[in-house]
Fold:
Amino acid sequence: AQRVTQPEKLLSVFKGAPVELKCNYSYSGSPELFWYVQYSRQRLQLLLRHISRESIKGFTADLNKGETSFHLKKPFAQEEDSAMYYCALIPGAGGTSYGKLTFGQGTILTVHP
Amino acid sequence: DAGVTQSPTHLIKTRGQQVTLRCSPKSGHDTVSWYQQALGQGPQFIFQYYEEEERQRGNFPDRFSGHQFPNYSSELNVNALLLGDSALYLCASSLRDLPGEQYFGPGTRLTVT
Structure:
């Protein structure tokens, strides 16, 4: 079974401070990991995926297979980063549950001015 | 392109009734997934449709069923509604070979009284 855990329901930081949103997962195979974000009054949208190793809006996330983690980081938080963030996992191609996207509970990030 | 659209926006039903929710995918997408999101929780995968067939299914009872049409649009049907079925129902579309990169609709808020 696949599971995603986001241990912090709420996270508050001040503008300009570093931010790290934690995500741990359990899956026996090789998963693909994603971060989704939902800004106020907007729909859920993809932020980034581990495969592309990209930086989106200053955010990066590294897949640590040894610690089964995929933490989201940004060195200098901005007020517009305030949103709900979800970590999500999908089994890799060839897995029996390929196509089944599993979300964590989400972390509400608030960036204070 | 309006992206993923869902109808209706809100729905109030009585326990025991049946409900049908509708979804139109983003232009060019061929795969539709449905999620249930209870208050304060992350989206939970219900099932995914591709080529008019259910490709993956989450841990939901048979009361939850779906359909995909030749134009890739989809319906979610829930029979014998329970109070616990009250939730936001999200539809997401993707390409078959990129199932983790999903585009979400605004959701349908279902209230069962």
